[in-house]
Amino acid sequence: MQTEAEWKFTAKDIAEKPDLFLSGHRACAGCGPATVLRLIMKAVRGPTIVTNATGCMEVVSSIYPYTSWAIPWLHTAFENAAANASGIEAALKILKKKGRSKHEHVDVIALAGDGGTYDIGIQALSGAVERGHDFLYVLYDNEAYMNTGIQRSGGTPLGASTTTSPAGTVIPGKLEHKKPIADIMVAHDMPYVATASPYYWRDLLVKVRKGLEVNGPAFLHVFAPCPRGWRSDPAKSIELSRLAVETCIFPLWEAVNGEYQLSTPSKVFALAPQKKKPVKEYLQVQGRFRHLFTPKFEKLTEEIQRVTDERWKRLLKKCGM
Amino acid sequence: MKSVVKQEVLALNGDEAVAFAAKQSDVDVVAAYPITPQTIIVERFSEYVANGEVETEFVCTESEHSALTACLAASVTGARAFTASASAGLALMHEMLFVTSGCRAPVVMAIANRALSAPLNIHGDHSDTMTERDSGWIQIYVENAQEAYDSVIQAFKIAENTDVLLPVIVGLDGFTLSHTLENVHVLSDDAVKRFVGTRKFINVTNHEGRTVPFKLDPDNPTSMGPIALPNYYFEFKRQQEEAMKNALKVIQDVNKEYAEISGRSYGDGLVDAYYVEDAEVAIVCLGSTAGTVKAVVDELRAEGVKAGLLRIRTFRPLPVERIVDTLKNAKAVAVMDRSMSFGGNGGPVFHEVRHALYDADKHPYIVNYIYGLGGRDTSPMQIRKIYEDLQKILRIKRVETRVQYLGLRE
Predict the structure, then answer these.
(1) Do B63 and A123 touch (CB under 8 A)?
(2) What is the C-alpha separation between A208 and A206, in angstroms, rounded?
(3) Does residue B119 have a cis bond before it (omega within 30 degrees)?
(4) Over the stretch B222-248, which tens digit does the pLDDT of each residue have?
(5) Residue A194 scores a pLDDT above 50
């Protein structure tokens, strides 16, 4: 096992490390998830197998006979990334025991979007975590079913307009709040849960590595803007992933054995609350929230601010701040 | 029999026989979820694990969908994987059945055949596996607990044959076989281990242009389960069909090879013909009902009636030529279906046997009996009535009712 001191992850280090998620995939310009995947794969520590739920990242990276994966990769279906990981991990364990695998250890990473995690995949995820399989589950959250054409998911935030929660003349987009998925995972009493954002890439890489190093299941919730679905400028995806943290809409934290701890990028706003930006700054640069800036629906931005503040306050309490 | 090994006789029900066979087959990963009447299989296997009698990773998943997913993932990682299910559990796996066969993962699954809801019914019929007949799995239906034991062992060898690489279902009738105690002859652990052998892998060309074994291996990366668009998908499916054709031969070879060590074989592995070669009136059926039919055939033969039975053991791939050949002298045939194909003019076995006979030189009269749904008993008297109906058809030279229901309150 490497120690934390060895995880330098300097810009130079990661630039020199070969890509395992290769270019040439078919992701859109400014795709947050593709950037997240490329970064994550820079943090692997040795032999690794990746399994992917059906979704954007699976589709753009594996169009037969091409692949963007320089390491063993498996896709089987939509709702079962965690079950795939269970099977791979179980096989690796017994093959090693029977002397049929020469690797001392192989890491297993399961990748899924918000649809494959919040909604259809939560059963398999919950089961795999309860059984204690040693794997890292990475949720790349672009807050809707983007692969099928921007339909709302349990991860879509309040007020967002999607193709199944459209902003109409009566209804202002999605009426429900985002499910607190990472907290749900903490409630599983699992060894490691964290949130991350690609703008804070070093924080993301360190969390990937920590997730791989723990014995047992780890869950990483990564913010991943989708210009197509969010109706945002493809050049602004990384900026948006900073704004989400600066507005405390998507705070960065980790829970090691259930103990919450605020991560450095978010700690800034706990220590200096005046630096915390209003959610409007984040909402107004995205077309999916455009209707919230009309007189009819503008009250909803206040509700989003209220809930964001409330959840942030609750998080600070959990972090003992 | 050149080298039949010494065998022990154990009192086992069908489920226990399956679990015992899986234990001896050196399975690496078992991922399963309980469902009646399959539960005994996973319970016995759990005991083997708990007592250190097997070197197997046992994964108690939270659903059948995850059970088959985990088996598939373990299988493509290089492990020998086994699971068991029934009825609603198999239905929940439906999506993954296609993915497993499409990924060419040689998973073996025992199904304690059971009715599908609604209404809820836990007893035996073939609705569950018949619904999955087009899922790309080899399907073997057994007649008794002995055959369940033998077939599970054979299934690994069939599935993992590199000309096949397809998953296999071994179906045993719920309760009639799963829960009924029989004397089962079992081979020694060593004999089974030798027979099944270790898993072999085919080689494929990976993205780097290197020849690598077809499994998830960090030293030889491959991408498995990709998306294939209209320009490639069709070829994948065609290859699966080719593998099914190859399986017809492999199943016969394995049946023969197994006979050499055990002294037991089941027809040619594909069909089990019982006094059918010269039969005028014949019944075609699957599974445990064949035992009842055989008893009636014995009686009728003693009475001078040329009665026979064709038990289809391998339903997928369908041994069309063997069915045609075996029934070549039959003048009237009754096909028994223990499931429905609603609105389909008869049950699935009837459809397939009738379709197979289309190319035969002589076309027998052919009728369908739906029977035993939801575990309803089928008596020798009812079977005898079928043969009488067939004799009547020969007398009056026409079929009065094409599809009938056996033992039904109407």
Answers:
(1) yes
(2) 5
(3) yes
(4) 999 999 999 999 999 999 999 999 999
(5) yes
Would you call B65 an interface residue with chain A, using a CB distance cutoff of 8 Å?
yes
* Separation of CA B133 from chain center: 10
In angstroms, rounded to a whole number, what is the distance separating the alpha carbons of residues A40 and B195? 45
Paired strand residues for B202: none
User: What pTM was estimated for this model as a whole?
Assistant: 0.97
Chain B residues with CB under 8 Å of A131 CB are 59-61
HSE-up (13 A, CA, CB side) for residue B169: 34
Cβ pair A131:B55 closer than 8 A: no
How far is CA A221 from each of CA A100, A120, A143, rounded to the nearest angstrom? 34, 16, 12
In chain B, what is the straight-line distance between the N-terminal and C-terminal CA atoms, in Å?
A: 51
For residue B167, the SS3 value is coil
Alpha helices in A167-298 (DSSP H): 181-186, 201-213, 227-230, 237-246, 264-271, 279-283
Contact of B55 with chain A, judged by CB distance below 8 Å, is answered with yes
Query: Is A64 in contact with B76 (Cβ distance < 8 A)?
Result: no
> CA dist B232 to A65, B70, B228, B378, Å?
8, 27, 6, 48
* Predicted complex ipTM: 0.97
- Reported as a single tens digit per residue, the pLDDT across A16-33 is 999 999 999 999 999 999
pLDDT reading at A1 higher than 50: no
Asked if B77 and A88 count as a contact pair (C-beta separation under 8 A), the reply is yes
Q: Which residues 96-155 in chain B show a CB within 8 A of chain A?
A: 96, 99, 103
Give the per-residue pLDDT at B207: 85
Min CA distance, A62 vs chain B (Å)?
5
Q: Are B179 and B142 in contact (CB under 8 A)?
A: no
* Among candidate residues A181, A297, A173, A319, the one with its CA nearest the CA of residue A250: A181
Which pLDDT band, with edges at 50, 70 and 90, does B4 fall under?
confident
Ramachandran bin of B165, using left for φ above 0, alpha for ψ from -120 to 50, beta for the remaining angles: left
- The residues in A 91-150 lying below 8 A from B, measured between CB atoms, are 91-95, 97-98, 100-101, 103, 106, 123-124, 126-128, 130-131
Structure tokens at A6: 């060895």
- Give B375's contacts (C-beta < 8 A, 6+ positions apart): B115, B121, B122, B123, B124, B125, B174, B175, B176
A138 φ/ψ angles, rounded to the nearest 5 degrees = -110, 120
CB atoms within 10 A of CB A11: 9
Does the structure show a pLDDT above 60 at B1? no
Question: For residue range B182-229, what is the model confidence (pLDDT) as tens digits?
Answer: 999 999 999 999 999 999 999 999 988 999 999 999 999 999 999 999
> Is A49 part of the contact surface with chain B (CB cutoff 8 Å)?
yes
Q: Tell me the sheet residues that pair with B404.
A: B369
Q: Do the Cβ atoms of B76 and A74 come within 8 Å?
A: yes
Q: What is the pLDDT of residue A2?
A: 52
Per residue in B101-125, pLDDT tens? 999 999 999 999 999 999 999 999 9
Contact B113, B289 (CB under 8 A): no
Q: A4 pLDDT exceeds 80?
A: no
Q: What is the mean pLDDT of chain A?
A: 96
Give the closest-approach CA distance of B313 to chain A in angstroms: 30
Say how far apart CA B182 and CA A37 lie, in whole Å: 56
